[in-house]
Write a structure and sequence with these properties.
797 residues; D-Maltodextrin-Binding Protein, domain 2; 28 strands; Solute-binding_3/MltF_N; two-component regulatory system; HATPase_dom; kinase; elongated; Beta-Lactamase; alpha+beta; five-stranded mixed sheet
């Protein structure tokens, strides 16, 4: 034990010397800075003699302290000579600076007043303000939980006291002029805690008087030490900044530990030493008795211990393996990870961060973050550090431009997270190269702008309707600006769930619109609708809506559609329909007039001409009786005249029948059977007829229309079909009269048939005039079927 203590003392003695002897790398200065140093080979350094920053040994006539050692390192890095100027306090030093007697001063804190006199470097050392209490206390102290009965000694006036008043208004502060008096109040139990900076505590803690004290907390207001240079020499400020960056961060930590961290003396025997020793001896005796008592069970306990040790070893091996896998995962992570200390120097970097920054393995360590992100100055970094340390659980995230080792830049997503590890504090910096994301965002923005331009030029309203996969709610995520010109409503108004496209539909057309849209929404299918809409100013317009459905990757159903104004085309269509209706009514009227005229002519031909022919036949017979015997040639001539009169009778009957068959007066069934018999007699083609026995009464127009359609159809069969058999069927189906004409002839392709088939056109027009429908089915080589369906009751207009 004595040898170990001896080696520990030797190590503690040699550690500062070894650290001091470590070479300091030269600063990387520009050509202009090197020329300036060549013109100023000697710099005057001002020091405030205050331990442990700077003190003068009268016996050795030598300066020492943290600031003295730092300036020697800086002089070695810059290759300059230093001339020391000592002052008792800061006021004398500032007076000397105003007189131009000094060039730079280490260990100053940046203040608004000091900025008028000096140029300050980035902080090179962080001196915390510590909370000191008795060594036998209860551990760390949280100042926010202290009540007003707990006295806290602090030097007043000072910035520390002002910070405690503003940050912890509930504290009972007791002011003292010196730090020593604050510690003495603590020892005399007139105060429970004392607040003192780390440097003064390092100076006072070596005294045996304060050996029983210990650090129990940190108020979170560190003193940041900087190097101040003459304000009229800005070149010197940049040179000092380069020199400070050239000093390794590890050397700065050793300098802080050697001069500023408290060093408590070895404690001697206390008054209760012998009592504690007696208790220890008694405990040893009891332990020996317990060992003897449990000797017989030692083997079993040892086996259990060995088993437990094996399990513990296995657990440690598993933990080590998990730690190795964790380290491997961090190293192989595609996200760049940096551990950075409060001075912004990197302490750890994974492979992704090194690759992202274009650095060799290990080249990122001990470098400040400003080398990779120029905008991250020391003051900005300290602000980020304070916010992260205050929140601890909240990450800070921002985007920036980072610089690679070759000078190229790349956009990065930076996330900062506070971390405590082995009594040290870090900010973990996560780097993500977002070059590809920026490219994709730019492409999406360009595509969106192109889509917006296309939608803006479409003569109508472009929309997207989405149905949520979870809730089933319908929303309009997009409606183009064409809604203003079409309906007078802005896209934002129509996108509201309670408005939508349904609110534009005319009240009389809403039922049809809901039917079409609900059917499409239920079946996830395309939908189309035509109807009237009402604009914002109450104007009615005809609109057509067409939407195409598709399903996204997450299952959401989307309808992409367009709404355009068809009022003009609808007006033309309605006018055309009206014109067609008028033409059809005119045609029906002409057909009716023609049939009536045919019937009148048939009656006149049958009645008038028949009577005249009858009288002529009687007169010829009278002539034959009276004069035939007088001249043998006269009888022959009269017989010839009678034959001509008979033929004329048949011709008159045929003309009257052609104009209007009298069989129509007996009903359409009889007319169909009569026409079939005439067709068979004329063409020698068998004609099969099926008609019902009883038919409801039909109007003369329907009977004549069906008969004329039958005549035209049989004429087409006779001319073109080359059929062997014809079937005629008349039936009643669902309040309609159906006439079917089928043949087994050649057939044809209706789509490629004769475009000038006026017979089929005439039949179709007749059916339309009767309010019915006509369908034609024909296959080449399989015959033709004509189906006519006429309602029994005329629909109301």
């Amino acid at each position: 034990m004595t040898r170990f203590c001896y080696l520990l003392v030797i190590g503690w003695f040699w550690l500062p010397l070894m650290s001091h002897a470590a070479p300091v790398p030269a600063a990387q200065l520009s050509v202009e800075q090197q020329q300036w140093l060549a013109q100023h080979p000697e710099l005057r350094v001002g020091l405030v003699l205050q331990a442990p920053y700077a003190k003068f040994d009268q016996r050795l006539q030598q300066l020492s302290g943290a600031n003295v050692e730092l300036m020697k390192w800086l002089a070695q890095a810059l290759n300059v000579e230093l001339r020391w100027r000592n002052y008792p306090d800061l006021a004398h030093l500032e007076a000397a600076a105003r007189a131009g007697e000094i060039d730079l001063v280490p260990g100053l804190t940046q203040t608004p007043a000091g900025l008028r006199l000096w140029l300050f470097s980035d902080p090179y050392m962080r001196v915390p303000q510590l909370v000191v209490g008795e060594r036998n206390g209860n551990g760390a102290v949280d100042l926010e939980r202290l009540d007003s009965q707990t006295r806290v000694a602090v030097r007043m006036p000072s910035a520390t006291a002002e910070f405690l008043r503003s940050s912890y208004p509930g504290l009972n502060l007791q002011g003292v002029p010196l730090e020593r008096q604050a510690l003495q109040l603590l020892l005399s139990q007139q105060a429970t805690y004392a607040v003192i900076d780390e440097a003064q505590l390092s100076r006072l803690s070596v005294e045996p008087e304060f050996a029983g004290l210990a650090v129990v907390g940190d108020i979170g207001l560190p003193q940041l030490l900087r190097v101040a240079t003459r304000r009229d020499w800005p070149q010197l400020a940049g040179i000092v900044e380069r020199g400070l960056h050239a000093i390794p961060a590890r050397d700065m930590e050793q300098l802080h530990a050697r001069w500023l961290q408290p060093k408590y003396p070895h404690l001697g025997p206390s008054p209760g030493f012998w009592q504690n020793l007696s208790l220890l001896i008694g405990a040893v005796l009891l332990a020996c008795m317990a060992i003897v008592y449990w000797q017989r069970r030692q083997q079993t306990a040892l086996e259990r211990a060995l088993l437990s040790a094996r399990e513990d070893i296995a657990l440690r091996v598993a933990s080590a393996e998990a730690l190795r896998l964790t380290q491997f995962s961090i190293d192989q992570s595609p996200v760049g990870i940096l551990w950075v200390n409060w001075d912004s120097h990197v302490r750890y970097a994974n492979q992704a961060a090194e690759h992202m920054l274009g650095c060799a393995p290990g080249a990122v360590l001990e470098r400040p973050l400003s080398d990779f992100e120029p905008g991250l100055t020391m003051d900005r970094w300290l602000g980020l550090w304070k916010r992260a340390r205050a929140s601890e659980d909240g990450a800070q995230r921002f985007e920036s431009q980072c610089v690679r080792a070759d000078g190229s830049t790349f956009p990065a997503d930076i996330t900062l997270s506070f971390l405590r590890f082995q009594a040290a504090e870090y900010l973990v910096v996560y780097l993500n190269d977002i070059t590809e994301r920026r490219r994709v965002q730019a492409a999406l923005q360009e595509s969106d702008a192109r889509l917006q331009g296309i939608a803006a030029n479409v003569p109508g309203l472009v929309f997207r309707l989405e149905r949520s996969l979870l809730t089933g709610e319908l929303d309009f995520p997009y409606i183009s600006e064409g809604s203003e010109s079409l309906a007078g409503f802005s896209p934002a108004t129509l996108r509201k769930r309670e408005v939508g496209l349904r609110s534009l539909v005319h009240p009389d057309d809403k039922a049809d619109y809901h039917r079409v849209q609900d059917l499409a929404l239920d079946s996830d299918s395309d939908w189309a609708w035509q109807g009237r809409i009402v604009t914002r100013d109450g104007q009615q317009r005809w609109a057509e809506i067409k939407a195409i459905t598709r399903r996204l990757g997450d299952g959401t159903v989307v309808w992409d559609g367009i709404v355009w104004d068809i009022s003009e085309s609808k007006r033309i269509e309605l006018e055309l329909d009206s014109s067609r209706g008028q033409l059809r009514e005119l045609s029906a009227h002409l057909e009716s007039v023609r049939e009536e005229e045919k019937a009148r002519i048939a009656r006149e031909v049958h009645d008038e001409l028949g009577q005249m022919l009858t009288v002529l036949k009687l007169e010829t017979s009278m002539c034959e009786l009276a004069y035939a015997d007088l001249d043998p040639g006269l009888r022959e001539r009269l017989n010839s005249m009678k034959k001509l009169i008979a033929q004329l009778f048949q011709l008159v009957r045929d003309v009257a029948t052609a104009l209007r068959p009298p069989i129509l007066d007996a009903g359409i069934s009889s007319a169909i059977e009569w026409q079939a018999q005439r067709f068979e007699a004329r063409t020698q083609i068998p004609c099969l007829v099926q008609v019902p026995e009883h038919l409801p009464p039909l109007s003369a127009a329907k009977e004549v229309g069906l008969f004329r359609i039958l005549q035209e159809a049989l004429t087409n069969v006779m001319r073109h079909a080359q059929a062997q058999t014809v079937e005629l069927t008349l039936s009643i189906e669902q309040q309609s009269l159906c006439l079917t004409i089928s043949d087994d002839g050649l057939g044809f392709v209706p789509a490629t048939g004769r475009p000038t088939s006026f017979g089929l056109v005439g039949m179709r027009e007749r059916v339309l005039m009767l309010g019915g429908t006509l369908s034609l089915h024909s296959v080449p080589g399989e015959g033709t079927t004509l189906n006519v369906r006429v309602p029994l009751v005329q629909p109301s207009k």
